[in-house]
Amino acid sequence: MTRFVLKRLIGAVLVLFALSVLVYGLFYVLPGNPAQIACGEKCTPAQVAQVRERLGLDEGVWAQYAHFLGGLFTGRDYSAGVGVLHCDAPCLGLSYKNGQPVTAMIVEKLPATASLALGALVVWTVVGVGTGLLSAVRRGGLTERALTVVTLAATGMPVFILGLLLMMAVCAYLEWLPFPSYVGLTEDPEQWAWNMLLPWVTLGFFESAKYARLTRSSTLETLAEDHIRTFRAYGVGERAVVARHALRGAFPPVIALSAYDLGTMFGGAVLTERLFNIPGLGNALITGVRQVDLPVVVGVVMLLGVAVVLANVLADVLYAVADRRVVLA
């Protein structure tokens, strides 16, 4: 198992290095003149030259990348006219619009995205795994057909349409919940939970469809194996067969997919954050793109890449723990 984990970690480091090269080249090399973007359209050539020197863009491409990579591990110094501004590691640069360290901006917005992702994880696990298991146990019956229709509808409906419909039904017509208005967990935990409930349900229900299908297919495959038929032949009850044996074989792919999806949620829930006005990383990414604030865009994209890569490593390890045959393969 130790060798398996080390191989996955070494592969993750190589992927992250390649990701840093790709992201830096895509956002800082291909645009042609980032200093002009940072300074603004009305800047004179002399002002653009000053900004280029302040940001360290007057050196060669590989020297600039070395400074960028070094800033991630040791921090980086930026010229501030009469002095030097130090950006602590991991330094992802300074925002073109407000001059703040991008890392600090990401740390400020990360709790909102993390709370959305973790809450949605609970919803899609409970709803998806529950409906998938029930469909497998009630195979061929009316319950399975009804759950199949619901999961297919959830798959085919865009998340922003689902969110709008839920807001209209729950907040406008039934008035069960107030219209979502994000409040920090430390400010008012109860209000935070009520305001996050609808975003959790929206994103979790949207993602639960694939978990329902995966759980159903995995459970049916496990129930068809020889050792399950042997348990039934010895008179073991159906409930015990499903709870103690079938779920053990059906859960590994669900656990692995949950770890991966949790990683992608840290930058992939843009539409949900915009719809419910959650000040998370998705909102920061959209704002950075609209304002052509390259360091913010690079910082969020890098964080998303790191989250996805680490989520893949975690998914592989969890799958190996649940199914030892993966390590032996």
What fraction strand?
Answer: under 5%
Query: Strand count, sense and closure of the main sheet?
Result: 2 strands, antiparallel
Strand element count: 2
Calculate Rg over CA atoms. 24 Å
- Low-confidence regions: none
The sequence of SSEs as H and E is HHHHEEHHHHHHHHHH
Notes on the structure:
The protein has 329 residues and is mainly alpha-helical. The protein folds into two domains: 86 residues, no CATH class; 226 residues, MetI-like fold, CATH 1.10.3720. 75% of the residues lie in helices and 2% in strands. It contains 14 helices and two strands; from the N terminus they run ααααββαααααααααα. It has a two-stranded antiparallel sheet with strand order 1-2. Strand 1 and strand 2 form a beta hairpin. Helix 1 crosses helix 4. It is globular. The termini are close together.
